[in-house]
Design goal:
By secondary structure, the chain is an alpha+beta fold. The chain has 4 helices and 14 strands. It has a single domain, classed as Fumarylacetoacetase-like, C-terminal domain (Fumarylacetoacetate hydrolase, domain 2, Alpha-Beta Complex). Bound molecules: zinc ion.
């Protein structure tokens, strides 16, 4: 199982971090150990002083594939949830400055939290999925899949030309504007539509 993440997939978020809108999807990965298991508490990592939340729609791959065409891509996922791509922004900024890889900032243990999955089929229009992220009951991020630069199907097709996709792989499809810092004691909640799918505390 692997976790594939998409960077800068919402123009407003690319701009808020001073990045350009990409000409092709920006892809990075997190290892299996990055997945926060349900029964494990999330502890604020000791190596950062600027932990950011990035709330994203997350797809689960349900079929093995490679070189998947955009038209077939929809048959490779049937479940969706919201997740948090935790980012050590201070470390990422240093690495970016030097042109170095991002893994220490993005792929550390427990840096990928996911909510309860729901069926994509239960959603009216997958190109119009509203999702929201609350920090201590304050709305911080609000996204809609309609605003993604690359759609789910375009992402699956693109990714599968480089990396074989396997059952159980997760795809974090990028975060909308509004990313920010979180601290120990924060309660984080994320919803698709009005359905609360993820609720976790930073210890
Ligand atoms: Zn992200």
């Amino acid at each position: 199982m692997k976790i594939i993440c998409v960077g800068r997939n919402y123009a407003a978020h690319a701009h808020e971090l001073g990045n350009e809108v990409p000409e092709e999807p920006v892809i990075f990965m997190k290892p299996k150990n990055a997945l926060l298991q349900n029964h494990i508490p999330f502890f604020y990592p000791e190596f950062t002083n600027e932990l950011h939340y990035e709330c994203e729609l997350v797809l689960r791959i349900n079929k093995n594939g490679k070189y998947i065409g955009e038209k077939e891509a929809a048959s490779y996922y049937s479940e969706i949830t919201v997740g948090i791509d935790f980012t050590a922004r201070d470390i990422q900024n240093k690495l970016k400055e030097k042109g170095l890889p991002w893994e220490k900032a993005k792929a550390f243990d427990n840096s990928a939290a996911i909510g309860k999955f729901i069926n994509v089929a239960s959603i009216n229009n997958k190109n119009d999925i509203n999702f929201k992220f609350y920090q201590n009951s304050v709305l911080k991020q609000q996204g809609n899949s309609a605003h993604m630069i690359y759609s789910f199907d375009e992402l699956i097709s693109h990714i599968s030309h480089y990396f074989s996709l396997n059952i159980g792989d997760l795809i974090f499809t990028g975060t909308p504007a509004g990313v920010g810092e979180c601290v120990a004691g924060d309660m984080l909640e994320a919803l698709i539509g009005d359905e609360l799918l993820l609720r976790m505390e930073i210890k």
